Amino acid sequence: MPDTQKTLVLLKPDALQRDLLGEIVIRFERKGLKIVGMKLIRLTDDLLDEHYAHHVDKPFFASLKKFMMQTPVVGIVLEGINAIDEVRKIVGSTNPQEADAGTIRADFSMHVGSNLIHASDTVENAQAELKRFFSDDEIFQYDKITDSYVFGD
Ligand code: IDP
Ligand code: MG
Description:
This protein has helices at residues 13-17, 21-31, 45-51, 61-68, 83-91, 104-108, 123-133, 147-151; strands at residues 5-11, 34-41, 73-80, 117-119. By secondary structure, it is an alpha+beta fold. The protein has a domain at 5-88 and 123-140: 2-Layer Sandwich (Alpha-Beta Plaits). The structure holds inosine-5'-diphosphate (IDP) and magnesium ion.
């Protein structure tokens, strides 16, 4: 298997409320990304302060945090070739109005405040976010019979 990356995805409360969890997960499965971690997470104020630290001074910060605590979120760890960029490509631009058709955010959402999904955007952030939301024993390594078809020999 060639070098792979792991990346962190969160399915936000709007995805859960709108029954879009399956629609979203199937897109990653069909790409060939391997689900190596998955669980419900109840986000806290402290976790969100850390996770969205880059938005702390924005006017929408408080409402963003409130939104993210409305229900549990689904945390997913995906593994694949160039997974961080590939997942961002499938997710689409932050503002669904600017996202390309065919991406999750363009196809299923309309407003930047409820854009369904979070995905790590850099190697550094992926490392920090995996650690923030998953312990080592919640991230799995396993073979699939399709590995050579998906990842090459
Ligand atoms: P990303 O989720 O595509 O990585 P970031 O810039 O990291 O985008 O923003 C994190 C989240 O903050 C977005 O997904 C969105 O939910 C929220 N957000 C960003 N900009 C706005 C805004 O202008 N209004 C409301 N919410 C916003
Ligand atoms: Mg971001």
